[in-house]
């Protein structure tokens, strides 16, 4: 079966349902997925109800009502099919749209998973859009949300732009008129909202000597170029507002700076996606900042506010989300500072830190990713954290980078295997994965992950074990 066939079958299952309950994840991908499907189904006059969960685990299943509706699991479910079975759900009342690694299961739940078709660079929001389009081909306004979900799940990172079916979705939005493709553009976060030197100072992929991690260094660099960085009234311009010539001048100077320090220039430029129908200088203006706004809503347990924004609410929901985003940034900054100051423990093939109950377990993964680029980036980073509402359980988040993936590392595999050994459960992706383990098995677990990573590095390069 091709992806098209799976999508068509999913659309048919949905159209034949009396009513639908969407069970989705609380991150940007899960929130945009829910918004795409619920809007598409509402437009068809169907009854839709939605549930957001942080993780599909036994405790979360109590939020899944036992009624006659079709249970549509999105951005989760593939790796928890046994849980669905244990919950008493049969194959004809479930549909899974997911892009996470699946789990063998006795019940053959119908599903669309892009991994089954070799597409590793597409998220659940991309699948949701394809299904929505199979139901109503005219609903191409929803492509924009699919791009937000894909970018939010880092699907554009490796190739500096979306590829494959996720890239085809971009084209629908371009034709509809709510997406503009910028190519090539600066591969940097915050191009719609941050002063240019702040934008560059926070950029560490690529790492630019004298500029990355130093907004003052970035400002000196820009001033030397003689580029006008402020408006006539004295406010800072953002990248998006700079004249084309100035942007080109900055990019070529950055390329020279990379070359001067013997670094690659291939990650300096990326294809980016801006939204002309959104107000300038807001996080809604481009896909990556929009995704961060949705992530902030999810991490602070308000996914429905993110959902309202996806549906066009620019009033109360948007103001609430902006507050959450500001709070989100403050806490992440504190978390990163804590990791750097407290220091990590380095084992042979990983580095780790336990943050106790100082930070919410929903954000420690972001901290792990940010810390990785500032610490020993060759060793995958693990953050363990206590769960305030479940003291017996420790949450584990791991992050690595493309460098390690190219050398055989697969965090998803490592955490699934190591957590199963201690009676926990893990999942995710090769580059970013998480697990829940019993609190008293932490030490054993960390050693086991280190051993598995050693094996993975060794199997890709037998000379470098
Ligand atoms: Mn996802």
From TrEMBL:
Pfam families: DHH_CID (PF21763), DHHA1 (PF02272)
Domain DHHA1: 363-454
Domain of life (superkingdom): Archaea
DHH-CID domain: residues covered: 189-267
Protein name: Phosphoesterase
Lineage of producing organism: Archaea, Methanobacteriati, Methanobacteriota, Stenosarchaea group, Methanomicrobia
């Amino acid at each position: 079966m091709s992806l098209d066939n799976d999508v068509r079958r999913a659309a048919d299952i949905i159209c034949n349902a009396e009513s639908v309950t969407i069970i989705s994840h609380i991150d940007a991908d899960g929130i945009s997925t829910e918004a795409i499907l619920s809007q598409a189904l509402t437009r068809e006059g169907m009854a839709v109800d939605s549930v957001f969960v942080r993780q599909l685990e036994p405790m979360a299943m109590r939020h899944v009502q036992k009624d006659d509706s079709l249970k549509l699991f999105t951005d989760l479910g593939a790796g928890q099919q046994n849980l669905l079975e244990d919950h008493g759900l049969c194959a004809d009342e479930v549909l899974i749209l997911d892009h996470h690694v699946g789990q063998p299961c006795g019940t053959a739940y119908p599903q669309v998973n892009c991994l089954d078709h070799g597409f590793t660079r597409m998220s659940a929001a991309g699948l949701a859009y394809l299904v929505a389009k199979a139901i109503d081909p005219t609903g191409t306004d929803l492509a924009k949300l699919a791009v937000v979900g894909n970018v939010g799940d880092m699907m554009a990172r490796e190739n500096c732009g979306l590829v494959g079916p996720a890239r085809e979705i971009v084209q629908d939005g371009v034709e509809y008129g709510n997406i503009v493709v910028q190519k090539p553009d600066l591969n940097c976060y915050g191009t719609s909202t941050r002063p240019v030197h702040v934008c560059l100072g926070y950029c560490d992929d690529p790492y630019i000597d004298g500029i990355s991690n130093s907004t003052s260094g970035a400002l000196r660099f820009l001033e030397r170029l003689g580029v006008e960085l402020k408006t006539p009234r004295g406010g800072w311009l953002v990248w998006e507002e700079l004249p084309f010539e100035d942007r080109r001048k900055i990019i070529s100077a950055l390329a020279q700076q990379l070359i001067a320090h013997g670094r690659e220039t291939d990650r300096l430029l990326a294809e980016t996606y801006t939204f002309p129908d959104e107000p300038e200088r807001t996080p809604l203006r481009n896909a990556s900042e929009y995704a961060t706004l949705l992530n902030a809503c999810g991490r602070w347990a308000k996914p429905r506010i993110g959902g309202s924004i996806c549906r066009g609410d620019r009033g109360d929901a948007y103001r609430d989300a902006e507050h959450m985003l500001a709070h989100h940034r403050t806490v992440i900054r504190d978390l990163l500072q804590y990791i750097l100051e407290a220091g990590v423990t380095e084992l042979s093939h990983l580095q780790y830190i336990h943050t106790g109950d100082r930070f919410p377990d929903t954000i420690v993964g972001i901290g792990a990713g940010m810390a990785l680029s500032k610490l020993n980036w060759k060793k995958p980073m693990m953050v363990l954290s206590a769960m305030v509402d479940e003291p017996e359980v420790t949450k584990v988040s791991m992050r690595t980078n493309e460098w390690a993936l190219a050398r055989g590392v697969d965090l998803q595999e490592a955490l699934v295997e190591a957590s199963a050994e201690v009676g926990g459960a893990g999942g995710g992706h090769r580059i970013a994965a998480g697990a829940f383990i019993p609190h008293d098995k932490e030490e054993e677990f960390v050693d086991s992950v280190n051993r598995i990573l050693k094996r993975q590095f060794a199997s890709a390069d037998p000379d470098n074990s």
